[in-house]
Design a protein that fits this description.
The chain is mainly beta and 266 residues long. It has no helices and 21 strands. The chain is globular, with a radius of gyration of 19 Å.
Length: 266
């Protein structure tokens, strides 16, 4: 299966340990980059959609299992599913089946249209660990009408989910290929103090998607105290110019909140 350049693996070169995989010595064909392949058809029916996939090495001779991955933020694999309009967003976690050498996850997709599907994980190498980020696309039919795909996203640095609100402050103009520091502050519409907990081992997860290509960006927040209030500092990186949707996930008062933002990257 061939993937467009924007959906190729972003991870660095990696030789999987022979002890962990098959007992054979590391050879050139055992190195990355890796590929993500959906085992089932690329057109799915709306509803709880089982996505079964395999992670292959470059030569398609080795599949990556759960034993080959390190637990990061409480999971072996983090998966992100979002529609082409960047409206619906799902952060889910696949399970591995040793009997089929594949991974399965089933997000509840109610709308038709094209979806981007990305996974992130950390694979064990012979001397170090390496990050792999893989993506592909699939389509859904038989559900509600798809969201219209916008030509642009208006900048939005403030968002609310129920009583919880968050605001972003950027350290400068976002530029392609350069790190950007983002300061996130929390509040409640009721005027009460927010009670920010931990979600999947982090205070906040910030997932970004490029409008048009679906290119993924992901960052985690580090807690700081400014003027007696807890805020989050995130180091974000955007590989492409254009508009990005950002989804912030955090827990406030024991409830998971998902807030959408939008920025433009020069």
């Amino acid at each position: 299966m061939a993937y467009p350049p924007s959906l190729q693996v972003l991870g660095r070169w990696l030789c999987l340990s022979a002890v962990l995989i098959s007992g054979s010595a590391c050879a050139p064909e055992n190195w990355g980059p890796f590929q993500l392949e959906l085992k089932s058809q690329s057109l799915f029916q709306a509803g709880s959609t089982p996505l079964e996939f395999v992670i292959w090495n470059q030569a398609r001779s080795i599949t990556v299992s759960d034993a080959d991955l390190i637990t990061v933020y409480e999971k072996k694999v983090h998966a992100y599913v979002f529609d082409e309009s960047l409206t619906d967003f799902y952060h889910v976690h696949p399970d591995y089946s040793s009997s089929t050498s594949s991974w399965v996850v089933a997000p509840d997709l109610t709308r038709n249209g094209t979806y981007f599907f990305w996974i992130e994980g950390i694979a064990k190498g012979p001397s170090q660990s390496e990050t792999l980020t893989l993506g592909t696309q699939f389509s859904v039919e038989g559900g509600l009408d798809s969201h219209p795909v916008p030509t642009a996203l208006a900048e939005s640095l403030s968002a609310a989910d129920g009583n919880s609100q968050a605001d972003l402050r950027l350290s400068g103009v976002p530029e392609r290929g350069k790190s950007l520091q983002i300061l996130m502050s929390f509040s409640r519409l009721s005027g009460e103090q927010p009670d920010i907990g931990t979600y999947l081992g982090a205070r906040v997860h910030l997932t970004g998607a490029h409008l048009g290509t679906g290119q993924l960006s992901h960052a985690h927040g580090m807690s700081v105290e400014i003027d007696g209030e807890e805020k989050m500092v995130l180091e974000a990186y955007f590989p492409l110019s254009g508009d990005y949707r950002l989804w912030a996930e955090f827990v406030d008062g024991g409830e998971l909140k998902t807030l959408p933002f939008a920025i433009h990257v020069d």
